[in-house]
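Hi Prof. W.,

I finally got the Cellulose synthase-like protein G3 prediction working! I wasn't sure whether to trim anything, so I left the full sequence exactly as given:
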Amino acid sequence: MDNLGMAPPDSQPLSSVRVNKPLAAANRLLAALHAALAAAAIAHRAILLLAGGGAGRPLLHVAMLAADLTLLFIWSLSQAPMWRPVTRAAFPDRLLIRRRRRSSPLPGVDVLVVTADPEKEPTVEVMNTVVSAMALDYPAGSLSVYLSDDAGSPLTLLAARKAYAFARAWVPFCTKYRVQCPCPSRYFAGDDDRDGGDDDDRHGFAEDKLRIKNMYETLTEELEEAKKQQLDASGTKADHDAYVEIISDDEEATSMPSLVYVSREKRRTCPHHFKAGALNVLLRVSGLMSNSPYVLVLDCDMNCNSRSSALEAMCFHLDDHLPDKRSLGFVQFPQMFRNLSSKDIYANELRSIFSTRWKGLDGLRGPILSGTGFYARRDALYGATPSSASQGKLPSQSCGYEFCFMEAGELERRFGRSNDLVASVRSLNDPASSSRRRGQDEKDAARLVARCSYEPGTAWGHEVGFLYQSVVEDYFTGYRQLFLRGWTSVYCYPAPESRPPFLGSVPTNLNDVLVQNKRWMSGLLAVGLSPKHCPLLSVSLDAVSTLQSMSFAYYAFAALYAFPVLCYATLPQLCFFRGAAAVPLFPNTAASVAVFASSALQHLVEVSVAKRGRLVALGTWWNEQRFWALNAVTGQLFACASVLLELVGVGTVDFELTSKASDGELYGNGVFDFTGCSMLLLPATTLSVLNVAALVGGTWNVMGSGGGFSGDLFPQLLLLCYGAALSYPLLEGMFLRQDAARVPVRITAASVAMAAAMLAVFG
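And this is what came out:
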């Protein structure tokens, strides 16, 4: 380390990595403890069942044993990404010094932004994402932004034109005053704690800031007015032609990033493959126009919150000291959220993923592709392999090396009948290929590759680009297209004192949260149950380690939590309701309590580490416990049903877009918002009523018989009390609240009727 510290700046590593050995040791110790306790409890139940201890109602014990085994299976998979957590750091200053001393330009970056519905995805917010991407701290001539509008909305096109006009003032302002927050909405709202400006030029800064703020307010007012005039109500959302517009000025090619609006052709009779299809169109259009070796993918609500993310990503992609640098396929940044409530009752933070398990996966060859906020190599997305890409002499010359020697017929089969696109693929190995091309020929070629008829018969979506076999295109593409081909990834998590690189928005309505989780779980489970794509069947491949396969499999099978939670939410309740005549479902009281305590302790330690030991960790732990149970019997349960129906050929897994336009007042106050809740909530409300009825009825029956609770029934009593505490927001929404956001009356009535029927028939 001392030698590295004395090395010249242009020869020092551009990044660093540190294994968190104390945390790894603690994770392994807690995992071993819980595994031993769970195995002992399961073995005791199995031995008792085999010895006839379940006489009378053996099926109940068989079901509980199956539930315990399922829990142990999923929990075991979840421990793989906890095995070797690491922390990384990037040093952009070193990268800039090296670039200046070697007179070598930075490689080009194409930013791909996708939007699908101006009603659910507010246009002003989408334009903030576009403008913030244009204001990244990166050479303007090497940065291009592409906006995909799947709705073909005139409002979005108008907004893109106006956003570019605003960016012509905003981007120079950010550069001149070294503004840290490139997102104008957050900057002018006062959310940025460092708004730039040199001490010797505060007067000029204040004047410029006021001028730019007025321009931004005018932009938002014009867009709101345009929305009121319903410019997007043109009926072209489902069917419209391909349209590409370059919203740039050739004279500003070196001072301003280019902005390209793309609306691919959509027809009701042609599959469009949702987000993956839109991204593949952007890959083709950007390949024709700028052909940058790296692409940044952003959801329309994921604003750039730091101008340095591009430079930080290049610190990894261009770091000669990084092990296996030639196989680095993408740099993943965490998803963080600007409208996250401090109470976060829906566990929207996704803490277990972005603050915990992605750091562990980074120690196992890298995190999973996460849908947004990642800088990927274009040739990796095109289907290249690291062994071929590494043939280039320099990082910027190693992209797409194998395509240079591929026969024209094979390139046409893979990439389609566009000579211009095939030529751009061949030229990926040439650094000069990333120069912008804006002529009429390029626009005509771009419209060609954005048509519905372009992809059929090619490898797009199957071997090239983002893959179509799953609605979770990020997970599936990262797993099949990148990791199984030998690519790796790194996770760039900001230091506590640093700015979050990207900030998105979370759904603040419970129904939207559950629908979103159902979509994720459906897509993931479909992959897990596929004999061809199941991650556990990839263990034998050299490109993927056992722990990495287990990590992928954990998310693929997470929806199966629905089965054990459903068992634990029904069978103990129905048995307990019988009172003194109840069948004990937890014959070993000490073992049952110990397993629950070790699981809760492991979760609490995990949350405390992520929250750095703050008192808020306890609240986060409780919210995650509650939402885990709720999601298991709603989103995950319906996901299992959806996938099973698809497997038997009855239905398909759908892509349902969630709204980003809610004000979230109730969510911010820590109150569940049940507005618009559908039958998706019915299992959870029914089980909540069943649990309370069984708790009250069983206790009454025991006390009425003049006896007390036996030791065998004590674990069931604890379980029912715990379930009642977890389900309190649902019970409150059904029976105590009278506001408009309460649980719909029809769901409450159906829940009471179904719970009563279950107790009458099985209790």
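The first strand starts at residue 15 and ends at 19. Does that look reasonable to you?

Thanks,
D.
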